[in-house]
Design a protein that fits this description.
This protein is 61% helix and 15% strand. It has six helices and three strands.
Length: 94
């Protein structure tokens, strides 16, 4: 369990991934296209960040045709005692 927690916080320590999570919290789900417009990153860079967040189980990915949709994995995070909304809100005040 502690390894999973460390993985989550390591993933959130990257400013780009932190921003992606903050953005994902504004809506239930975003397509890859929407996120790529918001973050102006190359496709390989986006894929790298997505894979880190998916690996840490912070986000879910849902495939619809050729498009991927990303959302916060709230159920899992709450199950292990992490309130991602609270973490992001507190981070905004630091």
């Amino acid at each position: 369990m502690s390894e999973l927690i460390v993985k989550i916080f390591k993933s959130l320590s990257d400013p780009t991934r932190y921003g992606m999570i903050k953005f994902l919290l504004t809506k239930q789900e975003f397509s890859c296209k929407e996120l790529s417009k918001k973050f102006s990153l190359s496709q390989p860079a986006l894929s790298h960040h997505f894979s880190k967040l998916i690996s840490a189980k912070i986000i879910n990915v849902r495939k619809n045709g050729t498009e991927n949709y990303y959302s916060i994995n709230d159920e899992y995070l709450k199950e292990i005692g992490i309130d991602i909304n609270k973490i992001i809100k507190k981070g905004n005040h630091l």
